[in-house]
Amino acid sequence: MPSSTIQPVLAAIDVGTNAVRLELARPDPDGALETLHQERDPIRPGEGVFATGAMPRETADRLLSTLRRYAALCRRHKARVRAVATSALREARNSEEIVRRVHEEAGLELEVVSGKEEARLICLGVLHRKPSGARSLLVDIGGGSTEVATATGEKPDNLWSLALGAVRLTEVFNAAKAVTPKQLRLMRSFVAEVVRKTLPPKLPRLPKTALGSSGTINVVVSFASGDSAGSASARQISHAVEALAEMPPERRRKRFDPRRADIIVAGAVILEGVVKHLGVDAVTAVNRGLRDGLLVDLLYRQDASREDTSLADAARAIGQRFFFDEKHSRQVARLALTLFDQLAALHHLPLSTRPYLEVAALLHDIGNAVSYERHHKHTYYLIHHADIPGLAERERELVARVARYHRRSAPDLRHSGLAGLLPSEARTVRKLATLLRVADSLDRGHQQAVKSLKALRGRDGVTLHLQARHPLDLELWNAEREVANFRSVFGKRLSFHVSR
Q: Which residues, at least 6 apart from 440, have a Cβ–Cβ distance to it below 8 Å?
């Protein structure tokens, strides 16, 4: 294969509660991922976090030592990297300090992802290339949280993250040693309560067999089925819980990897509780999970030809919770993306920023749910604190800033609303917000009066040719107010031409 056709190496780093993992892979011409290298270090990043609320210094040092080695491997392969941390760092009060140390000492950008984003990535990894109409139910038990998802094809329909994990439950109930019948009853009751409060009482059209994607589930299913199959029935899982709880700790350590042995009872109790609540007949273990999802996500992000609506779907779901004007938001998003695409040679923004504009446009008015006055600032707050699967924390911050500037103060680089951003980030927000302001002004009456838009660049400026369904007096009056800011940002005069 000529060197020019060799795909770049992709790297996934998963900082879990029980272990840290690295996988390096390269896509083949068919879009499948060929694994080049894997590592797993069972350093227990979550050890003590759920009891004390912070990651101890010695644990952080072990984590940094591991990530420095992983970073060196990634650099050697010139890999594109996505590194994420899950529930342990989500809950550690010193997570910001650890993320900073990872950046400074290992040169990695470590994302502390939300539970829903974790579930979305697990879905991508387990269900990659699944037939588009296939229905799936997915369960993943980590050290600090359990993710549950339903999906059609490889696209998630519902995502849930439960504050239940094998390490967390073991620490809460001191279940690493002998487990008494009373302890087991309390653990089962606790799990049932958390599951009942987090998952809906009934989910329609669920498959009768769930896919279990974590190491804990693999071990429990193997034990429950007598090592004879990769699948265990609900009854076998309940019997396994009883057997594991009765097993002396010494026998557990001989039967399983020592670190897995300490948490296996808690993991089995969680799996039993989720299976009972969902009413499924069996669980089939799979050997794919979060790491695979990170690699697929990287693969999709570099494929400019792939149309992915999952982020826009997530934004619309948030908008609906805040009773947004969906027709107006979709119209503004359509116009803003048209401007982005047709003025690419003017704004020079990478294609990766296009989804930021789409989400900001869809959600720009959700602050109205708090109050119309200063609703742009309420919008910023709501997006800033939202859980939007598909956006990293920093990406969500940029989206919130773009939406905040859809009205009132222009996105001037000296404005306080752009404080804390890198210069490149501030310029991106300024350009995207300017496109959003023009698009929003062209639907000021919320009547979707603009049927189509075509942006043409001339020597002196940009002309927007608008085909209208209705008179655009209000829209043009508002759009004219954006001309000065457009010229300030892009150095071009903006004019409008309307036809019916």
A: 332, 336, 361, 364, 406, 407
Interval 207-260: pLDDT, tens: 999 999 989 999 999 999 987 679 999 999 999 999 999 999 999 999 998 888
CA–CA gap between residue 3 and residue 1 (Å, rounded): 6
- What is the token pair recorded at 340? 């982005």
Q: Last residue of some domain: 423, 447, 471?
A: 447
- How do residues 49-69 score in pLDDT, each as one tens digit? 988 999 999 999 999 999 999
User: What six digits make up the tokens of 359?
Assistant: 């989400």
Residue 39 structural domain:
3-113
Residue 135 backbone dihedrals phi, psi, to 5 degrees = -95, 135
- 257 in the same domain as 329: no
Provide DSSP, 186-255: HHHHHHHHHHHHHS-S--TT--SEEEE-SHHHHHHHHHHTTTS-SEEEHHHHHHHHHHHHHS-HHHHHHH
Q: Is residue 461 included in any domain, yes or no? A: no
Angle between helices 181-198 and 234-246 (to 10 degrees): 140
Domain boundary among 269, 292, 315: 292
Q: Helix (H, G, I), strand (E, B), or coil: what is residue 436? A: helix
> Looking at this protein, which amino acid is placed at residue 341?
D
Same domain, 157 and 106: no
pTM of the model: 0.79
Q: Which residues of 320-336 are buried (b: 16+ CB within 10 A; e: fewer)?
A: eebebeeebbbbbbbbb
- In one-letter notation, the amino acid at residue 297 is D
